[in-house]
Every structure is written in structure tokens, then in C-alpha cells.
Amino acid sequence: MTPSTDTDIGLPLDMIIFGGVGDLAMRKLLPALYMAYLHGNLPAQTRIISTGRQEFDREAYLAHVEAHSRSFIASENFNDKTWDGYLQLLDYVRLDVQQAPDFGALARATHPGGQRVFYLSTAPALFTTICDKLADAGLVDAQARVVLEKPLGNDLGSAIEINEAVGKHFAESQIYRIDHYLGKETVQNLMVLRFGNSILEPLWRAPNISSVQITVAEEVGVGSRAGFYDSTGAMRDMVQNHLLQLLCIVAMEPPTSLSPDAVRDEKLKVLRSLRRFGLADIARDTVRGQYTHGVSGNQEVNGYLEEKNVPEGSKTESFVAVRAHVDTWRWSKVPFYLRTGKRMQRRSSKIVVEFANPPFPLFPGAPGGVANRLVIELQPEEAIKLQIMAKEPGSGMQMQQVALNLDLQSAFQQRRAEAYERLLIDVVRGRLTHFMRRDELEAAWSWADPIIEGWSTLGEKPHPYPAGSWGPAESFALLARDGFAWVE
Ligand code: NAP
């Protein structure tokens, strides 16, 4: 699709970023807004107002952005003149979210009567106080929008508390719970592939599909985020949100329309159909891991327990694999294998849909292999491939696997926006379809919480795996038991 340039939202836009000096703002949000500006996707009267406790005047903040954010814009997209124009949109307001008077300064920096978008890129523990104080300062009106970063809460109880607190001031239609995986072109494409074609739908079910794998593997370790990560772990940080959202897109029934509620109703049904885990299921169908010293990208790297700010003897998991089930007619007995980890062999996120093999092996070749797979690659590159069997040229009827490659890059000449850019434009235009609704988020926590509690009851240490590997051996055994193997 050509990027739309319907930038006129009828009002001046104030994009207010809480945590505007933080890691996410520097690496993702400000570069994404630059790209939106470069492509004419921000309204003419836009202000981007960053907030934080650090003492910056506007010039010092712009210098900080120059030093810490500019390098995250690909050189082919960088243009001095556009960058200078973009910097004109930026402002900084020093603000401690605990201090009500600081919100007066923020109010003075906004366009009166403008479209306000509050992007809460801080720890979720601050969301309640930010929303209360915004409301007290008279900054929340009927058209204001709030974007909430993940993970939203630490468990179901805290998620409910945050949702209640935000909901006191913002209607559900004003709340954008972001999961950047839903902004990826390929994930949105999976919906088109499934519901814009009729050939896949009759096959998209048990027993034609024998298993689904969803992997989100990171090459990086915990880095400087141990303070946050050690009290979170891979289940809360990745599975409860990103992996379950991807599972929803694979497993959902066709929605009745593309309206936000029609799509989110179907995702909610999937989340509510996820089989709950008892202690025996947790012991059998989940694997927790923690990386140890190893080699990553040709460099020796620390194990999790040696990382800065990780408490001695921490049992936090940096890896999770789960064998999940969606208890519906469509997915009866189809295992959904979910896997995520830090310090894995390489950065790779993909969904693999494995189809049942032909019931009778007629042709020689590829013995024991899986005949057909739909592979949706999300990272590092986005691609969709259908693996099928074909005849090897020459005499005889030897068959071999080949991939029908849906080469989106050459089929469409248009640029593909990054997930954050696309989602930020959705927020500005008021499009909620690719954001999570409250009940979805709470259903996801209802599934994840008993697993996390069960791990704590069982008291087992996570299985060690060397940095630079694909995780603990137990994760391979989880699939081997059912006759499957992870597709790397
Ligand atoms: P971060 O680097 O720690 O930034 C958070 C910011 O919050 C800090 O810059 C800090 O600015 C500000 N802050 C803290 N206390 C404050 C207070 N009392 N008043 C005003 N500002 C305050 O965190 P981050 O990595 O950017 O993450 C932000 C959010 O995004 C988190 O919820 C995280 O889970 C989520 N997230 C992050 C990533 C990522 O890649 N970083 C990815 C997905 C989701 P001052 O010190 O200037 O006050």
C-alpha cells in the first residue's frame, strides 16, 4: 500500500512522551516519529513534547536527541534538512510525575484544544499517578488518547488495578495498549493471507495442521535492564504479551469486519480458550531456562547470574518454552509450541505452521521430513514462505522440499514502515484495531499467572543453557515427545 498522506486530523497534535529521555524513546519512538514526519504522516501542526525528571532546557534536550536517537535512523532515510525540520517539532518539559505542579508546565506547553496523545513510556507503576495528575491538570478531554507500554502490570491483579485507574479518566476507545508485534507488516499480512484468500481457510484447522510453533529468540542478554528484568522474567516480558498475541492471529476465527471490536472479540475468544495449566501440566509442558556463560556473536559473554544487578542465586527465567492448547473444534489436539529466550544463537522470530504429512508415502525422498510448512518470519527480516514438495529434475520420481516464497519486497515496491512508526500513525488517526483491549490483556494474564505461581510452588531452578545456544535440552525434548522438532 502507498503510505497514506491523510494527515489532516482537523486539530493540532501534541504527542506527549512520558519517559522521553528513556531507552525506548531514544531508540524507537523518536526515530519512528521522524520517519512519520519524513513521509508526511504527521499533521502540519505537530508538537512532540518529551518529559522526564532530568534538567534539560530545550537546546540541551535536542542535543541529547542528536547524540542518542539520530543513530537509530537508517542512513538512507536521513536527511539534514528533514532532521532540522523535525527537531523544530520537539520540546522538553522537566516533569516529575509525582509532582502535581509540574503538570501545569506541561499544560502550558500544549496547544489549547489540540489532539493530545500521551505516550506512557515509563515503568507501569507510574501509569496511575500520571493519569490522575493529567486529569487534575485538565489535560484529559474527550479526544485525548493514551498509549500504554507493555508489560502492563506484573500479574492479573496489578493489570486490573492499572486498567481501573486509567479507565477512571480515559474511555476504552481512548486507550491504546501497544504490542509492537501487532504493528509488524508480516503479522498484519498473516490476517490478509488467512482472511483475504479462500484457499487456506479449509486447511487452517485440525487435523490438517499438526502443530504450530512460535519463536521469539533474542541474541542479546539482559544488558543494563536487569533491575527491571529480574523481577519480570521471560514469561511476563514476552510470552504473556507478544507470543500470545501472535498465537491469537494464527488461531482466531474470521472476524465479521475489521472494526477494532470485531477483531479483538475474536482474539479474546482464543485467549479464553487457552487450556489452563495445573501443577502436573506445568511440570510436563513448560520449560524454564537461564543462560550461562557462553559465546555470542564470536564473543565470550557472561551468564545471567554474572550480569550487572542480577541478585545472587536469582531463579528468574531468561528462556521459556510452553506446549499450549487452544480448546476449540478448530484446534482440537493441535499443540502450540511457544518459545522465547535471551542470548539465543541468533535473533529470530517466526511462526511455523506445520501441516499434516500425506497419509501414504508414495514418492521417494525427504524421508521423515515435514512436507508442508507455512513459515512466517518476523525477525530479523520479514518474509512468508510455503514449503512444499516438488519433483527433483531428472529421471525418476524423487521429491524434494522447495519454498514458495511470497516475496513481498519485490511484489510491492513501497517502503515498509517499522512497527512503531505504523502504530504511532494508527494512534494519531484513531485506529484501534492493532492494539489490545482491556479484556484481552486480562485474559492473557489469567492464563499466565497460574503458570508463574506454579513455578514458584514447584520451586525448581531454571534449566541452564549456554549463551549462544537454542536453549535448554528440555525444550527440545518437549517437542520430540510429540514427534516434532523446533524449526531454526
Ligand atoms: P527507561 O530507559 O528506564 O526510561 C524510563 C523513563 O522514565 C526514564 O527516562 C525516566 O526519566 C522516566 N521516569 C522515571 N521516573 C520518573 C518520574 N518520577 N517522573 C518522570 N519521569 C520518570 O525505560 P525504557 O526502557 O525506555 O522503557 C519504558 C517503558 O517501555 C517500560 O514500561 C518498558 O517495559 C517498556 N518497553 C521498553 C522497551 C525497550 O526496548 N526499552 C521495549 C518494550 C517495552 P528521568 O530519569 O529523566 O525521570
TrEMBL record:
The gene is zwf. One of its GO terms (molecular function) is NADP binding. It comes from Massilia yuzhufengensis. Residues 16-189 form the Glucose-6-phosphate dehydrogenase NAD-binding domain. It catalyses: D-glucose 6-phosphate + NADP(+) = 6-phospho-D-glucono-1,5-lactone + NADPH + H(+). Residues 191-486 form the Glucose-6-phosphate dehydrogenase C-terminal domain. This is Glucose-6-phosphate 1-dehydrogenase. Transmembrane segments: none annotated. PROSITE patterns: G6P_DEHYDROGENASE. Substrate binds at residues 180, 184, 218, 237, 342. Belongs to the glucose-6-phosphate dehydrogenase family.
